[in-house]
Amino acid sequence: MPHQLMLPDFNLLSDEELFKNVMQDTATELGLTMEFLYDGWIVRFTNPYDPSKRYELLGYDIGLNSSQSSFIAKDKAMCFHYLLEAGVPAIEHFLLKPKDYKYSNEDAKVTLAKVKSHYHFPFVVKQNNGGGGKNICFVADDSDLTFAIAEFSSENLEISISPYYDFPIEYRCTYLDGEVLMSYGKTKGENLQNNLSKGARVVEVPEHLKEELHAIAIKAGKAVGLRFGNIDIVETNKGLMVLEVNASVAQKRVARYSPELYHQSVNVYVTALRKLIDLG
Fold first, then answer.
1. Pick the CATH number of 67-90+166-248 from 2.160.10.10, 3.30.470.20, 3.40.50.720, 3.30.450.20
2. pLDDT tens for residues 195-215?
3. How far apart are CA 116 and CA 112, in angstroms?
4. Closest CA to 174 of 123, 246, 222, 81
């Protein structure tokens, strides 16, 4: 990067404080001022010479994606459908229709019967439009499955079901307009989840996987119509498969793992904002 970053003491800062540092360095690189609003849920960048020119990160959404592509990415079952149509290898996600769910005309019992006829236990039941490692349930048998569906249904959550794949590492690729800006692996943490918020650790992507990994991420981003996002890919007994597509990009945890990852995280936002404000 053109200017020399003064790296923070990663051990002394919370995730939110570190993210604020990333945002401030992003603003400095672009010659903008930066404000944190609503406890950091809104990050506002302003041109100091023309305050009418301002750009906002809203809940980690920088505004490059269309509402349609963001909607597809958020809906795991719908996203799988788009990836499947585009020939992108992906973990299967099937929607279990809650009562009176208007976006599907297939009853949950019919879907379950189809899934169980093609796959075997264990399964993963999760909130169809959730994220962050929340509302995910491993089910080993019919009893577990019945309980999980009842729990999710009681909270009126959209439900998706997937066959379980055992993978020790999940790879995250940060995608922008047909390119991968950075990639890294996440080991399993608490509850055997690959979320940094759940205690997962960052590892490097093996060189022999990078080319294929990035190619799949690029194909997935294009299939969903994203301009900017995080694409999670896992290595299974069927090869590399897309697990999830995220239309928002939150680099607040990965940035603390090394100076290189901190620099890469800043570069991600600098590059994306340049696209947004047409500086590059």
1. 3.30.470.20
2. 555 557 889 999 999 999 999
3. 6
4. 246
